[in-house]
Amino acid sequence: MKRFWSVLLFLVFVPLAFARPREWQTPNVHRVNQTTASKDVISELQRNMPSEKEFSELLAKADEKVSAFEAAINNAKPGLDRIDTKYARNYLDAAATAHLLISKTIKNGPTAYNLVGVLTTLDDLSLDAANGSTFLLSADGDRVAKGAPHDTNIRDAVVALSSAGTSCNDIAELIFHATMRLIAAEETALNKLLHGQY
User: Fold this and answer.
1) Alpha-carbon distance 172 to 191, whole Å?
2) Over the stretch 44-87, which tens digit does the pLDDT of each residue have?
3) So what's the pLDDT on residue 17?
């Protein structure tokens, strides 16, 4: 009798252990595979993308560079206002926009959309610094051509603007590289999820 039960157990349970899943069970198996694949993709995404700490540090430095740009514009404001009052006002408005975009990106987290906005604004500030320097040097050259001496304040303002513009460009380049790593990691993960390449 003992042998009978052993054979019966063997005949009933062994086939069940090796049986293929029925059709109603297949979606659950597929769902488990998708969940595992999603976790793998998320893990890979986290490994390849820049950390929030890295972005926070870069954005904090960018905010400092924008403040330095504002100081340089305020220093150059008397010379720029003699040329046209709109220049310093527009440059300071652009700096305020940069501060706003940076603070929103720090608060809401880095997304490609927000980071491109920050990059564009930093690029504008760099260009504004170059334009402001050109306007000041041109106006000083016109004064010298009329027989007046060089304005030493202009030279100091141009040096400060040049330095501020270079700083904005340098931090923008660092943020650009981090942004490209973020975008590449997101695209890779998205492609793997969409095309089932787990």
Assistant:
1) 28
2) 666 778 888 999 999 999 999 999 999 999 999 999 999 999 99
3) 47
Q: State whether CATH 1.20.120 applies to domain 46-195.
A: yes
Q: Model-level pTM?
A: 0.75
SS3 for the chain, per residue? Answer: CHHHHHHHHHHHHHHHHHCCCCCCCHHHHHHHHHHHHHHHHHHHHHHHCCCHHHHHHHHHHHHHHHHHHHHHHHHHHHHHHHHCHHHHHHHHHHHHHHHHHHHHHHHHCCCHHHHHHHHHHHHHHHHHHHHHHHHHHHHHHHHHHCCCCCCHHHHHHHHHHHHHHHHHHHHHHHHHHHHHHHHHHHHHHHHHHHHCCC
Query: What is the rounded CA–CA span in Å between residue 95 and residue 126?
Result: 10
